[in-house]
Every structure is written in C-alpha cells, then in structure tokens.
Amino acid sequence: MRALWFRIVLALSIALGLGLAGAQAAARLPIKVVVVTTFEIGADTGDMAGEFQPWVEGWPLKHEIRIPGVRHMARYSDDGVLAIVSDMRGRTRESVAALILSDQFDLTKAYWIVSGIAGVDPAVASVGSAAWVRHVVDADPIYELDERDTPADWPYGLYSNDAERPNVKGKAEGSSAMAWTLDKDLVDWAYGLTRDVKLPDSPGLQALRAPYQGDPEGQRPPFVLQGDALGTVRFWHGAHRTRWAQDWVKLWTGGAGTFTMTDCEDQGILDVLDAHAASGRLDRRRVLVLRTASNYSRGPLGQTSLPHVFHGEGLKAGFDATFRVGGVVVRDLVAHWDRYAAALPTATPTGRSR
C-alpha cells in the first residue's frame, strides 16, 4: 500500500511540476528583437538623449519591466521589441547574462542588435557615420609595456598574451574567442536595407571634420557602411594607438577585418551570447552590431589628439544615428515576422531584402 501511495504522490508531483513549467513557458513574453544599449544620460525620455532614449521615444517602447540583475529598467513594446541598458565595463556581461537567464522572456527566435556609439578611425569614416559590424575583436587580453621601455624596433608596447612581441598571435584563455564573425548574410541584409539612409549633417560636424584633410573618408558627411569593431574596457585615443588597433584587427581576423569602430562592450556581449547559445535560449546567428561614430580615434595627421577627443555635436550625431539606422532594420524584422521568425533574412544583389 505504501508503495502504491508513493507512486501516486510521485505522479502527482511530476504532473504538477510539468504543469507549472508549461504555465511559466506560456507566460514568457515572446521577443522578436532585443536592442542592447550600454548607457543613458538622465531620464529615459524628455531630456538629453543617450543610447537608450532614441529607442524609447522613437519606437516607442511604452512598457517598463524590471529584470533581476539589470540595473536600469528595461522597456518593451506590444509588437515584441525589448530594449535594455547593459551599463559598461564588467556590468555589461552581467546584464546580458541576466537577461538571457531570466524566465520573463522567450528569446529563442529573437534578433539581437547591439546599438551604441563608438570612436571611429578617420581613415575609414566620419563622425556621425554608422557601421554594421562584420567582426568583433577582443582587445582586453593583452600585455602592455611602457613605450619608453620597449625595444627600438617595436611599433608600440601592446602585444598578445603569451606572445613575445607585437603583431604575433598569442592565447586568450578564459573567453569563448578573440574574434567573433557575425552572420555575413544578415549583416549584408541590414546594410543593404540602410545604406541609403540619410544621416544628418550640421555646421558643427563640418567643423569637426575640417582638420582631417589627410583623411578623405573622415571628411565625408555621415554615411552608412560596413566595418569591424575593436572592443576593450579601457578608453584609448591617439595616432599610435590607432595604428595598434588597425594591426590588432588584421591580426585576429586573419587579414579579413578593417579596424573601423572602437568601443568598450562588444567583446563582452559577444562572449556572453556565445556562452549561452548552446543552451538553446538564443540563436547566435541572429546577432547584429551597429556602432555609430561619436568621435575620432585620433587627431588629424600631424596634430595633437587632445582637442579632438569628444565634442557635443559628435555625441548627438552618434546617438541620433543609432535609431535612425537601427530602427529601419528592426521595423522590417517586425513587419515581416511571418518570414523572419523561421528564417534569417538575406540580401539580394541589389541590397533589397528577401
């Protein structure tokens, strides 16, 4: 009799557990697009915008939701767009992991767009421009030697862990990769959809570009392009460091990448997305990175860097471009969810989606 009662209780417990699990799964909010921004200035609406506010006001994202482990209140829309502020440096990884592990959302079919400002190499593009990223390269696992102490034939004092000189690949144990390649068809599609987006120009931006006479691409009015991002938690600036960034991206992409944007978060975000992709909670192929230029990574050729690091016009242009360009892609994903839920969009030779 005891054995019979034990089997009955066990069966009821299993049934109850399965019922609760099913109810929890059904209660999860299905998400079509996750927008990851990294910081905001002041309030989410009605004041000077950071990276988050253009999405909150522009979509709009009317509903707030608290995600355990994410400091900033998240926002979402009735049509399945969720945006978070990940914060910067180490907190970036923690926030993205907290979102993935939350039982509040179904992210299995969601597309991810990392949307934030960055420094731009003036040899490649201008302040206010927007780059769809093909490769993200991690620049955190690195040895740094004071340039005053480097051998005479070294170009700089930065070199890979477990290497003995610059421009030699070493090791990067402790993360999923040193370089992440985003889905080429998806990146091409996003670029094709947005390459003709008109980005605003202004007298302030023109004044920022004017000294860069040795950099034709850096003097162009803002435009949309494809490029590659270098991620490191430390802020850097200057001609010597820009040369290092160019070499570092080439080194870790096997010559396929071109240093375009520098930021502090992409390497952490891609590492976390890779770490959790095997669980089935997300589709790693459905990841886009959009970086918009708020400042140049160095001063004009032959000039000192310090007067050219940050400028209010550049910041405003970078914030504006995140939604102006990224919003086009998100609207197309949502509008054609009947197709894109099951299969990734691809670009035709003309750049139009299919």
Low-confidence stretches: 14-24
Number of helices: 9
* Helix fraction by DSSP (H/I, runs of at least 4): 25-40%
Number of strands: 14
What do we call the CATH homologous superfamily? Nucleoside phosphorylase domain
What spatial order of strands do you see in the largest sheet?
7-13-12-8-14
In the CATH scheme, what's the topology name? Rossmann fold
How would you characterize the largest beta sheet?
A: 5 strands, mixed, barrel
Overall 3D shape: globular
Q: What are the SSEs and their pairings?
A:
Layout: H1 2-27, E1 29-30, E2 33-37, H2 53-58, E3 63-65, E4 74-76, E5 81-85, H3 90-101, E6 105-106, E7 111-120, E8 130-138, E9 142-144, E10 158-160, E11 179-181, H4 184-194, H5 203-209, E12 224-231, H6 239-252, E13 259-263, H7 266-277, E14 287-296, H8 312-335, H9 337-340
Parallel strand pairs: 1-6, 2-5, 2-7, 7-14, 8-12, 12-13
Antiparallel strand pairs: 3-4, 4-5, 7-13, 8-11, 8-14, 9-10
Structural overview:
The chain is α/β, with parallel strands linked by helices. It has a single domain, classed as Nucleoside phosphorylase domain (Rossmann fold). 33% of the residues lie in helices and 20% in strands. It has nine helices and 14 strands. The chain has helices spanning 2-27, 53-58, 90-101, 184-194, 203-209, 239-252, 266-277, 312-335, 337-340, and strands at 29-30, 33-37, 63-65, 74-76, 81-85, 105-106, 111-120, 130-138, 142-144, 158-160, 179-181, 224-231, 259-263, 287-296. The strands form three sheets. Strands 7-13-12-8-14 form a five-stranded mixed barrel, surrounded by four helices. A two-stranded parallel sheet has the order 1-6. Strand 4 (74-76) and strand 5 (81-85) form a beta hairpin. It is globular, with a radius of gyration of 22 Å. Residues 14-24 have low confidence and may be disordered.
